[in-house]
Amino acid sequence: MRVTRVSFQHIDFSDNRFSLVPWEDSTVPDLLAESIKRAGLIHPPILKEKSVNSFVVAAGQKRFQAIKQVSDVKACDCMVIPMETPDIEVMAIALEDNACDRTLTPVERALFFQKILKWLDKKQAAERFLKVLGFEPHPHHIRCFLALLDLEEPLLRAVHKGRLNETVAIELGKMSFSDRLTLFDIIDHLRMSVGNQKKIIATCRDLAARDNIPIMAVLSDPEAKRIIDHPGTNPPQKCTNLMTWLNRKCFPRLSEAEKEFRRFAGSLGLPKETTLSHAPSFEKDSVTLSVTFGNREKLLKAWPKIKSAL
Fold it and tell me: What is this structure's pTM?
């Protein structure tokens, strides 16, 4: 590579052959824009020469966007890869440039390997590139990455932005279109944690299989809609209420046992310093009475009566 001052008018920004994002993304990170505004361009973008005075971006699209956003310059110094360099080697440089200071998103990994497989088979690609990304060199990882690219763009964007877990997204990809979008809309709307994303998929699958209905039908229940659309609760509260409702539907006997136990505990008139709990999932008939004391002296004062009662 050589350092060359390149006019923006000689760069074909529409050529995205080396891009690791499958759509136009004009969002410029604030820290990048502020840095360029303060100190100028410290890390030059990387271009590949297409022909004389014609270039394509290999890495640094965001840097170009930031320059245009914070200044009126029309050219900048760039690292230029010679025209004769094979595209696979340019992709390797683009990967290194992106991976050297951050973790690539699942979507970026997937798109990188989709492009690399034009020149290498999965085994060769795994051996050469997976260690750069922190993975063992096994083709299985590449197959998992590529499964993401079958998803619709809204889901891909959510994975890219970290709102949808990669593993959850792959599981959604195995469902019907209507079930997948119904679940995704709820996950995204309620801003579910990764744990709740996995729980709602597992619970809805169990309910749908038990009742032989689509997942969409489970979540179209009027009670589910009432919880999701309730104006007086925020997304975390709605998420908690929805998961509670789904668990009750999934385990009706356990839910009834919980209600009966709460009635029983309420009938005892327990002081506020005490709690009564049952065995997990009511696997045993035992109950546990817990008493909280403010300090050891208060416990020692009450202990003779407790000991005598026991």
Answer: 0.77
